[in-house]
Write a structure and sequence with these properties.
This protein is of the alpha/beta class. It has 6 helices and 5 strands. A 5-stranded parallel beta sheet has the order 3-2-1-4-5, with helices on both faces. The structure holds adenosine-5'-diphosphate.
Length: 163
């Protein structure tokens, strides 16, 4: 049984994240989408809200035979992966600019947990410029983000904005 962890902030979930989830599905039997409860950042959505929106969006993705689980976590990704009995950490690469940071993280995680490999998947080119941060910035300035984030995420962002 091959179990992977796909860690991230997912603040909020984008179609780029969903693209990586779809591409991972045929490679693993089970994948835990692990939502980082990052206490140092001030996120738009709480970890529980982020988990909830991922759970709601998942049925729209073809995840074939792979069982998808969504969990919030805090602390070290490598430790979370070990405790979850995962053999792989999945990360997405959008552009060369992601590479240096991801390489450092992958090497550090390998040092912490030598049996867990980081697997990099290339973003779909249509989402290669999509990040949660950019989506929040454009949305807050009134720009269109439809097609780049799930409709239900856009609704939740609008609800936050109107609060
Ligand atoms: P983090 O704060 O850990 O980078 P993110 O939610 O920003 O969390 O990203 C989680 C993972 O999803 C990362 O591996 C990131 O490279 C990947 N990712 C984010 N956006 C995209 C995208 N548009 N296409 C492919 N992968 C993406």
């Amino acid at each position: 049984m091959q179990r992977a962890v796909f860690p991230g902030s997912f603040d909020p979930l984008t179609n780029g994240h969903l693209d990586i989830i779809k591409r991972s599905a045929p490679l693993f039997d089970e994948m835990i989408i692990a939502v980082l409860n990052n206490l140092d950042k001030s996120p738009m959505f709480t970890a529980e809200e982020r988990c909830e929106m991922i759970r709601e969006a998942l049925p729209s993705v073809d995840t074939s035979e792979c069982t998808m689980l969504v969990e919030a976590f805090s602390g070290l990704t490598a430790e979370f992966a070990r405790k979850s009995n995962a053999t792989a950490i999945v990360r997405g690469i959008r552009a060369v600019s992601d590479y240096e940071y991801e390489l450092r993280m992958a090497l550090m995680n390998r040092r912490l947990e030598p049996t867990i490999e980081t697997v990099f998947l290339m973003a779909g080119e249509e989402y290669s410029y999509v990040s949660s941060t950019l989506m929040k910035q454009v949305f807050e300035l009134g720009g269109r983000v439809d097609g780049l984030i799930p409709g239900l995420v856009e609704e939740k962002m609008r609800a936050k904005q109107n609060r």
